[in-house]
Design brief:
This protein is about 50% helix and about 10% strand. Strands 5, 7, 8, 10, 15, 16, 17 and 19 form an 8-stranded antiparallel beta sheet that branches. Strands 6-9-18-11-12-13-14 form a 7-stranded antiparallel beta sheet, with no helix packed on it. The protein folds into 5 domains: about 1-70, no CATH class; about 75-280, Growth Hormone, Chain: A; about 285-470 and about 520-605, Up-down Bundle (Growth Hormone, Chain: A); about 620-740, no CATH class; about 745-975, Jelly Rolls (Sandwich). It has 30 helices and 19 strands. Strand 16 (about 915-925) and strand 17 (about 930-935) form a beta hairpin. By secondary structure, it is of the alpha+beta class. Keywords: Membrane, Transmembrane, Transmembrane helix. It comes from Monosporascus ibericus. This is Glycoside hydrolase 131 catalytic N-terminal domain-containing protein.
């Protein structure tokens, strides 16, 4: 009886073991057309099915799981809808990154404490992301594993993102309810604490969202839209959404996040997780997760370990530019204003720093464009080593004559691959580039130089989003294949071995494989990698806090370069990361052929992208070319080109031939409607051909004015032709630059002003062209500026009116002892680049004549590298000087007696950049301009908004104030070549 029972139990045990092995092995395979096939899911998506689940869950119902909806190849629109929520999320990040630091600083938080506030990012990245990953993996809600957390995270993000920019107003109201003065130290401290707490909660909410492999492009687009919105003067257009730039930007980001997340969650179907059965752990714990993480660190794959070391070093340096770029740019922007007026009121400081934040956001926009362009273009040049795919030989066995993969001719983009320029080396070079640019940060003193540094950071950021994930996912994929192959080998053994001893041995082998599988689980490896990113950010915050504590200056005090120093320190750690990249091996360390043979029972060959990447190459050609055309048409010509920013004339009606032939026409926005390839085909007829045949040699008069560019979704040419169009388009700016001459860059001829009161429309919060009006006395605008046709040069037929600028007894600006009335160009045009000509005409009368006993600085730049002067100059002999003088670096280069009622027509010829110089053109009355002073070498510098049209009069004892009138007309700036006719080109 006993023996019989024992025998029966043993038999049952064997049967159970066999069933258990079969169940486990089936979990590692998907079935398609009845044949076992390795899982084709992304290697970054690990299975959440427990290894100890009952067999019933190992073979789900065919009508829900086993249909191929979730395994079939998805369309591009499906991928876009799946990841579009990332775009909205990134807009929220862009809002926080670009405005968070300036806003906290505006509340009174010091930079050293600010760095501690941003420790919220690494804190939430270390704990929140892994915990949310655990919870979502174990979720069994019928409408999806991820949707509840996506929706919950989005809702929390919207709440705290809306609260953050309004925290000052909210806390002011609450403190007043309790009888507390919000302007006291305690009230300000409470506001700062609440704002910092909202930052922490906002980071927690943002970290509940997870990114997948398609997200890099959507992320780049979200960055661009977010930073572009941050650069626009939002209060001018969307005043109903808030009072400040940050408040309106937060509202826009919340609207975008809400709409994109709802679109993604409502339209994308997620597999029902209840079909997976109950999770292995009913109460997943964060402590258990980290125990698993630290245990797996000892068995981390070598490639992944090296990548984590690189990331640890690199992220110490990457952290400061991510969070302090806008503040870095803003500090450079406000320097000249603070040096000129160190006693600004708090309201003026707030206006100045808000404008500086928008200027800093432009740098983030440039960085986003650079990152997206790198993400799209650079892969075509990288020699593939980590994207090898396994191609089973079974297909070749069935069709031995099919050699299309090996015999096809290389496409043009495949020829672009640079031998030896591997992903590892590209990643290393991007770190070196970053370190070099960060080392230069402490020596940069201009916004344009800082923009270049941040733009280069975009290249490194694109590689950071690509290289480590590609290397890790390749290793995970191959190790996953090896483990599946080992499990399948066990499955074949168990059918032959039925003895107790054999099954005991198989149990031991199973435990070994399972332990190796757990140490290589995607979630565990990604958790370790995430810690390698988050942990160094703690170090970065401490380093930044120390640097700021030692070198920062109070808000509103010029000369603060503490952030630039922090950037340079970060560059040192990134340079170490570049050295550590050398430890990473090129190529795949796992024997792909052996894995495939063990798993599939046949031979296999590993083909690189060079052999099997035809589809990838074709899509790359279309994507790169279409994105380039769209960007060039919509952004380069219409936005970046300075000559198209303020174009108001009738050039758009000219023919293409006229536009290319006339040396006086500018690069107008309408030029972007020309077909790029048609222009270049006129010069190189064989450059590209349409599928239908050669379109022939086109003359300029035949160039179409309709939109002929190829946009995304409209590609109609072959890949080779498309690629040639892309290459040809790169030459277009140089070609067009040789075809254009002088161009009106900025128009300040008062033609758009009805009266001088229109100048009051301008403010720091509402920067409307053509002039900034803030340097004046305490009286109304009519006391200092008046417009009339009587105030212009009568020989100027283009200007409808001129301006009379008046200095009276109230014309003291901001408590200074100098009388001033000055108008500054309000423009984003490039009036400080290349060769430009600053035109204006000036005159005085006997009535209210300017004093010959005082120094008058007229139409000067902030650095006074060139200007006009009138009257007695300090250090001169005598008490009076009746001469009008042209000055370069405080040296007189030309002078004439300034007689009444004589119009002096003047143009400063300025060469900015390398070999900078200033020349002088002059005439009187209606005579054409002539160069009277050849260009003189000097240090010409300008930020594009620091030329002062008007007068600054220095005080002088013994000579009391008297009313003085100055008359100006014909004010404009042009580039490349000069217009000598009085009044300049027509509008």
């Amino acid at each position: 009886m006993s023996s019989s029972f024992s025998s029966s139990s043993s038999s049952d045990s064997q049967s159970n073991r066999i069933a258990r092995f079969g169940s486990k092995l089936s979990n590692g395979l998907l079935r398609e057309n009845g044949d076992a096939k390795p899982s084709e899911r992304s290697p970054l998506l690990s299975s959440s099915r427990s290894e100890d689940e009952p067999t019933v869950y190992a073979q789900p119902r065919r009508d829900t799981y086993d249909d191929d909806y979730f395994q079939r190849t998805k369309s591009i629109w499906y991928l876009i809808l799946t990841t579009i929520g990332i775009g909205g999320l990134q807009m929220a990040w862009a809002c926080e990154l670009s405005n968070g630091s300036p806003y906290l600083l505006s509340l009174g938080l010091s930079k050293s404490h600010l760095s501690l506030a941003w420790v919220a990012g690494p804190l939430t990245g270390t704990f929140v992301q892994p915990f949310v990953g655990i919870m979502s993996d174990k979720s069994r809600i019928s409408w999806g594993k991820r949707k509840p957390y996506i929706l919950g995270g989005a809702a929390a993000t919207i709440i705290f993102l809306l609260f953050l920019p309004w925290s000052k107003e909210t806390m002011t109201g609450m403190l007043r309810l309790f009888g507390v003065d919000p302007t006291t130290g305690g009230g300000k401290f409470t506001t700062i604490v609440v704002a910092v707490i909202s930052i922490y909660f906002l980071d927690v909410a943002l970290n509940t969202e997870q990114v997948n492999s398609m997200a890099s492009r959507i992320l780049g687009i979200g960055n661009i839209v977010g930073f572009l919105a941050g650069y626009i003067d939002l209060p001018k257009y969307l005043w109903f959404l808030g009072h400040t730039q940050f408040q309106i930007l937060a509202a826009i980001a919340c609207i975008a996040l809400c709409s994109t997340v709802l679109l993604s969650t409502l339209l994308i179907r997620e597999r029902d997780p209840t079909l997976d059965g109950p999770p292995a752990e009913t109460r997943p714990g964060l402590i258990a997760f980290f125990k698993k993480i630290f245990s797996a660190m000892r068995h981390l794959p070598p490639q992944t370990r090296n990548v984590c070391i690189v990331q640890f070093c690199a992220w110490i340096g990457l952290f400061p530019p991510l969070f302090y770029t806008t503040t870095f740019i803003g500090d450079l922007y406000v320097q000249p204003y603070l040096e000129q007026n160190p006693h600004m009121t708090p309201e003026e400081l707030d206006e100045l720093y808000e404008r500086a934040t928008r200027v800093g956001t432009l740098a983030m926009l440039i960085y986003s464009f650079t990152s997206l362009a790198t993400n799209l273009i650079l892969p075509s040049f990288v020699d593939p080593t980590y994207d090898n795919t396994l191609v089973a030989s079974s297909a070749s066995d069935e069709n031995p004559g099919d050699t299309s993969c090996h015999g096809s001719k290389k496409t043009l983009l495949e020829w672009l691959i640079i031998p030896g320029f591997t992903l590892k080396r590209a990643w290393m070079l991007s770190h070196i580039l970053f370190a070099a640019s960060m080392f230069s940060a402490p020596f940069i003193r201009t916004v344009h130089g800082a923009n270049i540094v941040i733009g280069l950071f975009g290249i490194t950021w694109a590689m950071t989003l690509w290289a480590p994930w590609a290397i890790i996912s390749a290793e995970i994929s191959h190790r996953d294949l090896l483990i599946r192959a080992q499990k399948q080998r066990l499955g074949s053994i168990i059918r032959d071995e039925q003895s107790e001893a054999a099954l005991e041995a198989l149990d031991e082998e199973e435990r070994r494989i399972q332990a190796e599988a757990e140490s290589n689980e995607t979630g565990v490896i990604m958790g370790i990698h995430n810690m390698a990113i988050a942990a160094p950010q703690f170090i970065a915050t401490i380093v930044c806090s120390i640097v700021f504590g030692v070198s920062e200056k109070p808000r509103g005090v010029p000369g603060d370069h503490s952030i630039a120093i922090a950037f340079a320190v970060g560059g040192f750690f990134v340079l170490i990361a570049a050295f550590m990249v050398l430890r990473i091996k090129d190529g795949d360390s796992m024997p792909a052929d052996a894995i495939a043979a063990a798993e599939r029972g046949g031979t296999a060959t590993a083909h690189s992208r060079k052999e099997t990447g035809q589809t990838r190459t074709n899509m790359s050609a279309v994507t790169i070319t279409s994105v380039f055309y769209w960007t060039y048409n919509r952004i380069f010509v219409s936005v970046i080109s300075p000559r198209s920013l303020e174009r108001k004339n009738s050039l758009s009606v000219a023919t293409p031939a006229d536009r290319l032939a006339s040396p006086k026409l500018e690069l107008a926005p309408c030029l972007c409607r020309l077909d790029v390839v048609d222009i270049l085909r006129h010069m190189w007829p064989d450059l590209a051909r349409h599928p239908g045949g050669d379109r022939g040699r086109a003359s300029p008069s035949d160039l179409p004015t309709a939109a002929c560019l190829t946009y995304p979704g409209e590609a109609s040419q072959s890949d080779a032709s498309t690629t040639m169009k892309f290459a040809a388009a790169l030459l277009l700016p140089a070609v067009l630059a040789r075809a254009v001459g002088a161009a009106l860059v900025w128009d300040g001829r008062f033609n758009d002003l009805q009266s001088s009161t229109d100048l009051n429309k301008w403010s720091w919060a509402n920067q409307v062209p053509p002039y900034q009006y803030y340097i004046h006395g305490s009286g109304p605008v009519e006391r200092y500026v008046n417009l009339s046709p009587e105030y212009k040069n009568p020989n100027d037929t283009v200007s409808r009116q001129g301006a009379k600028l008046t200095l009276d007894s109230t014309a003291y600006w901001n408590g200074q002892n100098m009388r001033r009335i000055e108008l500054i160009p309000q423009t984003k045009a490039a009036i400080n680049q290349g060769k430009v000509f600053y035109h204006f005409s000036m005159m005085r009368k006997d009535a209210n004549a300017p004093s010959v006993n005082r120094e008058h600085q007229i139409c000067f730049f902030e650095s006074h590298f060139t200007e006009m002067k009138y009257g007695w100059i300090s250090g001169e002999q005598g008490a009076a000087n009746p001469n009008l003088q042209f000055m370069v670096s405080q040296q007189s280069k030309w002078k004439t007696e300034w007689k009444p009622n004589v119009w002096h027509n003047i143009a400063f010829e300025i060469q900015f950049g390398g070999g900078s110089s200033v020349g002088f053109w002059h005439s009187e009355g209606g005579e054409p301009l002539q160069r009277v002073v050849a260009p003189v070498s000097t240090s010409a510098s300008s930020n594009g908004q620091d030329w002062h049209l008007g007068v600054l009069e220095l005080p002088r004892g013994g000579y009391p104030d008297q009313n003085e009138d100055f008359y100006f007309s014909g004010v404009y700036v042009e580039s490349d070549s000069i217009t000598t006719a009085i009044g300049g080109p027509s509008e």
